[in-house]
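Private note to self, pasted from the team thread so I don't lose it. Backbone tokens:
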């Protein structure tokens, strides 16, 4: 679901989507400046954010239908964070986020 949603956002924000098999690889790519952001499960992301000594910042995508959500990590001061948050808020307001939650998490 993270990659699918990222691909939709990429159509509006002009960004390239890449994936890695392990979360530490994603964090290394961000810290090295090769990735601008990563979508990670929020509990896991919190651990990386807390141990980054302020080098990473995140935004949690809230959900009220489940106990955990996803967090998106950007390098501190990233110019993409505000644009991403804008598109995310549009998708929350137009109901697309709720549709995805229902599709993938309701049973």
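Design output:
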């Amino acid at each position: 679901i993270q990659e699918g949603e990222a691909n939709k956002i990429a159509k509006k924000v002009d960004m390239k989507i890449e994936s890695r098999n392990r979360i530490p690889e994603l964090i290394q790519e961000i810290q090295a400046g090769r990735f601008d952001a990563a979508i990670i499960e929020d509990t896991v992301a919190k651990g990386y954010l807390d141990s980054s000594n302020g080098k990473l910042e995140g935004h949690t995508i809230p959900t009220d239908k489940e106990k955990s959500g996803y967090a998106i990590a950007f390098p501190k001061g990233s110019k993409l964070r505000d644009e991403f948050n804008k598109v995310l808020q549009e998708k929350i307001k137009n109901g697309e986020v709720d549709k995805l939650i229902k599709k993938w998490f309701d049973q």
